[in-house]
Design a protein that fits this description.
Phosphorylase Kinase, domain 1, five-stranded antiparallel sheet
Amino acid sequence: MFRREYGLFRPAQLLRLLHINRVLVRHGLDDIIFATHLFRPIGFLRHLLPWNWAQREALQQSRGERIRLALEDLGPIFVKFGQMLSTRRDLLPDDIALELARLQDRVPPFPGEQARTIIAKAYGQPVEAVFTAFDAQPLASASIAQVHAAQLAGDREVVVKVLRPGIEKVIRRDVELLYIIASLAQRYWGEGRRLRPVEVVAEYEKTIIDELDLVREAANASQLRHNFQGSPILYVPEVSWPQTRRNVLVMERIRGIPVGDIAELRRRGVDLKKLSERGVEIFFTQVFRDSFFHADMHPGNIFVNAENPADPRYIAVDFGIIGTLNPTDQHYLAENFLAFFHRDYRRVAELHIESGWVPAKTRVDEFESAIRTVSEPIFDRPLKDISFGGFLLTLFQTARRFNMEVQPQLVLLQKTLLNIEGLGRQLDPDLDLWKTAKPFLETWMRDRVGPQSVIKRIRYYFPRWVDQTPDLPNLIHDLLRKANSGEIMVQLQKQEMDQLRREMRQANRRNFHSAVGAALIVSAAVILGFNSLQPTSLSQAPLLAWVLGGIGVGLLLSAWPTDS
């Protein structure tokens, strides 16, 4: 029963599974256990179990809260899985998704001496040979890594992020278990095929494995710093590359006020309205100017430089999760927002089909009607109360009914937008996201399709065209040589080949008739032209010209393609 393609449960996995079951029972989630294919035939026994004889305290809590508490008890890997699931509103009921979004990635720190040992092993030399000072007491601790304060030569203050010892083994063990549970759910759970749990686990695996490579995170930070170099609205700390390894990341230490500490921001006199609007500006700049956005912008990763309260500046940290959009997704997303703002629901439906987000066979009128049904109620509220993130969420949920495939890049975008929007309205409850974003989107669209954009793209690609032009004759010769030698194989069914031959013969015949007919008409016109030099009427034109012209017209008509 408990089987994946590569084998049965191992003893360690069975022990872990039993622990998971105990946690589920403790939080009143044993109905999940008895809903599985294995235990469904004896599900009636659940009512005979001693802990179900009395009303348990856990059952007084909502199902979302019970699931959240169970994930927190199961450990950091399940916490992060729950956090990822909270962004998949297309899969979960709202009450569970909202509760999972409250999951906190806080775990007890591991000993500072252990961190020193990991760092020394990564560098191949003692910590003192690299840092002039190293604080063994961590500044922060999370499920994947923890952060220590340190100093480099010249009293340069830095932070050192160190992966937890043995974390990769723990992650792979629990992810493997998640795969097994997802496989069983997909096979035996009624909703399994629709919700595709194996794909959800695969998406989670990719995200969390990427977070284990701190060189990758450093590269993300370096790119984001380059994109906002000299920006007055966002600062990204500098990576210290010589000291960065796969399991150790060293960055400039920053100091700021946590963006969630509203009381301290108010005490310092920070312009919260400007701060909230700048958060929106940062998001849209990352998405539409750079197509490279920080996809984990929760309050714990955002700080504020309040040295100039009237001109506050954001500071970002933790770059393990980054989202990107290709130019096509950028374009269609911007058009979707603008079309929605103008209540042009048909255009929203067309954009989903044009972008390939929903199948090409989708009926535009039906899709348009569904979008109008969920969108019109939104416009009954003041614009400042309309949620951009909520619109995206509603739109994607509606599109799912029309077989919209899950777009991972859009899921990350939706999650980030919800974070930014919630943060912005926490700072300024009257934040009008539409007013802030609409001019940005309109300017971006105008710049993208205007003449300056065309010239810019030509200027960008022209050196590449010039560089590749001399190679074209060789490439064409190589292609023809391969085709002649049989290296390029084109396989057609006999019926398709016969049909192709018939179409080629018909095309050749039409071309021949067209050429001859045109030549005869031209000949007739020439004869008539010579005849026009004499004062004769058109009816007196030589008979030969009329005969040739008639035959030419007949041939052209015979060459005209028909539906058959």
